[in-house]
UniProtKB/TrEMBL annotation, chains A, B:
Cofactor needs: Mg(2+); Mn(2+)
Coiled coil: none
Keyword Manganese assigned: yes
Major enzyme class: oxidoreductase
Any one GO molecular-function label of the UniProt entry: D-malate dehydrogenase (decarboxylating) (NAD+) activity
InterPro entries according to UniProt: ICDH/IPMDH, IsoCit/isopropylmalate_DH_CS, IsoPropMal-DH-like_dom, TTC_DH
Species: Pueribacillus theae
UniProt protein name: D-malate dehydrogenase (decarboxylating)
Record flagged with keyword Lipoprotein: no
Amino acid sequence: MNTYKIAVIPGDGIGNEVVPKALEVLKQAAELNGTFQLECTTFPWSCDYYMEHGKMMPDDGLEQLKKFDAIFLGAVGDPARVPDHVSLWGLLLKIRRQFKQQLNVRPAKYLKGLESPLKNPKGFDLVIVRENSEGEYSEVGGRIYQGEDEIAIQNNVFSRKASERAMHYAFQLAEKRKNYVTSATKSNGIVYSMPFWDEIFKSVSEKYNIKTDSFHIDALSAYFITKPEMFDVVVASNLFGDILSDIGAAIMGSIGIAPAANIHLDGEYPSMFEPVHGSAPDIAGKGIANPIGQIWTGKMMLDHLGEKNAADNIMSAIEQTIANGIKTPDLSGSASTKEVTEAIISYLK
Amino acid sequence: MNTYKIAVIPGDGIGNEVVPKALEVLKQAAELNGTFQLECTTFPWSCDYYMEHGKMMPDDGLEQLKKFDAIFLGAVGDPARVPDHVSLWGLLLKIRRQFKQQLNVRPAKYLKGLESPLKNPKGFDLVIVRENSEGEYSEVGGRIYQGEDEIAIQNNVFSRKASERAMHYAFQLAEKRKNYVTSATKSNGIVYSMPFWDEIFKSVSEKYNIKTDSFHIDALSAYFITKPEMFDVVVASNLFGDILSDIGAAIMGSIGIAPAANIHLDGEYPSMFEPVHGSAPDIAGKGIANPIGQIWTGKMMLDHLGEKNAADNIMSAIEQTIANGIKTPDLSGSASTKEVTEAIISYLK
Ligand SMILES: CC(C)[C@H](C(=O)O)[C@@H](O)C(=O)O
Ligand SMILES: CC(C)[C@H](C(=O)O)[C@@H](O)C(=O)O
């Protein structure tokens, strides 16, 4: 029996509602599978924790997390009490950075029964591979001058290593899927970082026998709306991947179902699994948060741990639940978080 | 009789097809109006020109353009012959920068009869005010190290002056519309430029009695798909405005109809009017390019010149043409560039 040690961080808002539900599903899938178990340790790090301790996690927080096989996180942020940059950079982005989780992998898939805002969603099935450690989110910058002359400078830092790593991952993923990689660029307007990105994409693509394309982010965002079915794997910088994955979530019908994995590749630190959605203070506490984003994220965690059967089992239970119309209000349904979770558990085999 | 001197630059690809058609509409609208006329001078600056002269425009090109009341441009770019950064920065972006066209104004409006890819487009009517001179498109940056250690740095430069200017324009526009301004930010991930942008937005908003909101660009892109009808004026940085305006064009049904104005505010240089779409080499020469983007752009030029009656006349002719199903193939119609133009002219009053 394999035992995986999971660090659980429910975080803020609906994170506290969907994480326990997702764990019920994961544990049931593990039990039915019979060859592995999850040993979960919950950490209360959140804005509540911040209000009490003046920080988002203890000073040795990363040390504590380091020994786990994976981190399962809900959502971080409660802007009414703690400024976003404090909560996010104190917990979520800190873990992404310090644990060198260089890739953020985000599928967007049309599932039967979903209410896509698109008239004709035509079965799209794509994965965004987002560079997760640098680019437009670098912490390098500052301000100069005062008053009306004030200027802020933000450096976008693109390294060949990190870009290549994201691209190799994208190509290897495409080899297992539909053999097509699209690069998100903007080299016609952004003249240092993006032509560099394009050059690297060209040289990495030469190592694979895979169809490629490259679109500027403006056009690519539009194609996600007008013909999402054309894409397979899309590789993008930190910011572009962020934007594309919210568009991917929107065309699926709700950000409430979009899953994500922050992947560390070198075996030194755990990877972190957290859905695309945030803490949604507006609906927190009402019992209506969609648990599917978190559950699908759990499915990605099992895939990452090598438990493909249990992962596939969860995915088909999610698909059946949606196809049978058991949906929370964000998907135009009337089911509660609990009801959707119970349905998914009932469909596990 | 007012005479406006217009510099016409058809540019590349379909620019050569839609610009002459748009001029026919503008001239007819002027004639029907009876109080002004357009005196047009055409400049052949384009990738063809580049192939012959090794530059996109003559050395004194800007000098020649400076004396006009407005510039009416089609599209620039022919990547099969001239790299985009050469053609765009040698002509389009050069004019935007050198003539201090600090705002790029781009409406997106649901017109009756349009085939939006959205299931339920619900009459959205919004305008994107894009900062057009700096931000993520700064020409500051470079590379360091070689081989696998190579790094590219791109500086995003945000000045209080340019940001304020875009925001004041947005608020003043909203006062004439639905009194609501949304700011596109990403201050949770981009920690120098975007918090600066947010601060400026807050201080400018205090000068107006207008409802405001601020969304991160990822969420905002999704809202453009799930509830575009909620927006009025959206103010955004150079890159975010670029992305949002392509999404705006996509939800309208085709980038072929999306108009734009590059506005210079200080009376020192002409403003430039060019649609959102590019030169579209794939459909150039087939007589099927949608002329509406260029014609609607011409409407914006007349508005800018103070000819509101003629501008309104053109807009309602465009709306009638679309409502009557006279549409080019990009809008799922079968009419030619010429037929759409003739229909619009026939509806002018
Ligand atoms: C061609 C390109 C540089 C340009 C831009 O990004 O500004 C275009 O996409 C636009 O929106 O006008
Ligand atoms: C909260 C924010 C910093 C984060 C990001 O942009 O990375 C979020 O939008 C995401 O996509 O995970």
